[in-house]
Amino acid sequence: MAKAYIALGANLEQPKAQLDAACVALEALAETGSFQISPYYASVPMGEFKQPDYINAVASIETQHSPLELLDALQAIEQQQGRVRLQHWGPRTLDLDLLLYDNLVMTSERLTIPHYGMKQRSFVLVPLFNLSPELILPCETPLKSLISAKLRSELQELDSDH
């Protein structure tokens, strides 16, 4: 059994509803009773494209799926919710990124764990901290050492009625 952390993001077609639906799908992938979700946060999009703000969160699950099986399942959820990959960092109905899988460090053509950009992204770090404030990353960096007031100020926590 592995503990996996998954970043959720959406900024098209009712983003909050997209994250809510993704939570239902992720809970179905998780071992019974292991699904947890952070509060939802509004964040400014990355990249050069003019697009709506995102809603982001991080989920944790315990799973018997291998990392690549989990990636396949996450991509299937994205497709079921209308994800179309048109532009890097472009708008999307749903983005699910596998951030961490236990303490595994791996790089393959399809998957890099830990997720390559997670240490620079407030919309990943802050929700991850909500779930696991004592988490030590595979590089042995305590998550709490990456959290700052400036980082928190980049996000707006939304009402937590999910």
UniProtKB/TrEMBL annotation:
Please indicate which superkingdom the organism of origin belongs to: Bacteria
Report the function annotation for this chain: Catalyzes the transfer of pyrophosphate from adenosine triphosphate (ATP) to 6-hydroxymethyl-7,8-dihydropterin, an enzymatic step in folate biosynthesis pathway.
Xref: InterPro entries: Hppk, Hppk_sf
EC number of the protein:
2.7.6.3
Q: What is this protein called?
A: 2-amino-4-hydroxy-6-hydroxymethyldihydropteridine pyrophosphokinase
Keywords, comma-separated and alphabetical: ATP-binding, Folate biosynthesis, Kinase, Nucleotide-binding, Transferase
Q: Name one GO biological process term.
A: tetrahydrofolate biosynthetic process
SUPFAM superfamilies for the chain: 6-hydroxymethyl-7,8-dihydropterin pyrophosphokinase, HPPK
Tell me the protein family, please. Belongs to the HPPK family.
The GO terms this record gives for MF are: 2-amino-4-hydroxy-6-hydroxymethyldihydropteridine diphosphokinase activity; ATP binding; kinase activity
Keyword ATP-binding found: yes
